[in-house]
Write a structure and sequence with these properties.
- About 40% of the residues lie in helices and about 20% in strands.
- By secondary structure, the chain is an alpha/beta fold.
- The strands form 2 sheets. The protein has a 6-stranded mixed β-sheet with strand order 4-3-5-6-11-10, sandwiched between helices. It has a 5-stranded parallel β-sheet with strand order 2-1-7-8-9.
């Protein structure tokens, strides 16, 4: 299948591995900022094919993993109300809140429904005028346009029994926060291809220039990732710091302009806490005042819920690349996909979940 088989071709991958080895003369730390890339790296053993001098760091690229605990608690507070039908993507249901998760609440009788498109929640609201229907909008810029369209449609339809709990986040600010951190180890980035398909990559140009940091926009298949690593190492070895687009079949520099315009009409850029990373300036998206009537935080008075992250989970260190998942003493023992301590073990894109699925027997 085109764009699948050719980007999983073993012969091409082997040539790239050889090419990477041939140009690597120093140790380098490269971070991927995409959970899909992390999953592919561990699934296909890409990091194990590379020279020992190259260290791949798994960054905060899993949207489920970085959703802050306080927003899970807000979701739980709303979802438990008897008049509410709470709609969410399925991967959010097992993310632990302070005391339980959405799946546990559903088992207790709460009307919590998994949707595969945000627009499904709009249909549910139309079908149940006697209920308050809430959609939980999370994720990076990749999924934010769909939530923006949902808000726009709800306003056009003047739906009074519908609202949104919005916790979308932006990738460039978290990259900047990581680079400003005293714990920073990153020397080059693999940029998230799906995010850039929406936003383009013009926001990365000042980051690369200011921090002298190569950034290579990369896809998700093994050949994509190896090509991205090759381009990043080549820049590092040559002393360059540019933004390169390896994912040209999908990503253009300006991005998807209609999607961006829709987001700008519905969302404001705000400061936002990230699970395990703390508050990051200008890293979130929130509904504008024009959409206050559809803002679930205000409708259900949960805006003031603030929750401290538990100290027992080291997902923050995993998300910053300070430790690998297996270096956490709870990995595979107290913390498993069935009984997770943190979100990085829940989501299929989480680094801890990927290590547990593909590498747990290497660490027992």
């Amino acid at each position: 299948m085109k764009y699948l088989d050719e980007y999983r071709d073993p012969a091409t991958a082997k040539k790239l591995v050889v090419a990477i080895a041939s140009i690597t003369t120093k140790p380098w730390n490269i971070m991927e900022v995409c959970g899909g890339q992390t999953h592919s790296i561990i699934k296909y053993g890409i990091d194990q094919l590379l020279p020992e001098a190259i260290n791949l760091i798994h960054g905060p690229g899993c949207p489920v993993c970085v959703t802050p605990l306080e927003y899970i608690d807000k979701a739980l507070a709303i979802a438990q109300l008897p008049e509410v039908i709470f709609c969410s993507f399925g991967d959010m249901l097992r993310v632990p809140g302070s005391h339980h998760d959405l799946l546990g609440l559903k088992a207790q009788g709460a009307d919590i429904r998994i949707v595969y498109s945000p627009m499904e929640s709009l249909t549910i609201a139309q079908q149940h005028p006697d209920k308050q229907v809430v959609f939980f909008g999370v994720g990076f810029e990749t999924t934010a346009p769909a939530t923006a369209l949902l808000a726009y449609q709800a306003k056009q339809l003047a739906l009074k029994n519908f609202s949104l709990l919005v916790c979308h986040v932006r990738v460039p600010p978290v990259m900047e926060a990581l680079l400003n951190s005293p714990n920073n180890q990153v020397q080059g980035f693999l940029g998230a291809g799906h995010v850039c398909s929406i936003m383009g990559y013009h926001e990365y140009l000042p980051l690369a220039a200011h921090f002298k940091m190569p950034i290579v926009i990369t896809g998700f298949e093994p050949v994509d990732i190896l090509q991205g690593i090759y381009l990043c190492i080549k820049q590092l070895e040559e002393g360059r710091c540019e933004v390169e687009n390896e994912y040209r079949r999908v990503v253009k520099e300006p991005g998807n302009l209609p999607a961006q315009q829709l987001m700008q009409s519905v969302f404001n850029i705000v400061d936002r806490p990230w699970r395990g990373l703390g508050n990051i300036a200008a890293s979130g998206l929130a509904l504008t005042a024009e959409y206050n009537d559809w803002n679930a935080e205000q409708r259900f008075s949960v805006a003031n819920i603030n929750t401290q992250e538990p100290a027992e989970c080291r997902s923050g260190e995993v998300l910053q690349g300070i430790i690998k998942p297996a270096q956490c003493p709870e990995f595979g023992t107290r913390c498993t996909p069935e009984h997770p301590l943190g979100a990085t073990m829940v989501s299929s894109e989480g680094a801890c979940a990927a290590y547990f699925r593909y590498r747990r027997y290497q660490h027992v």
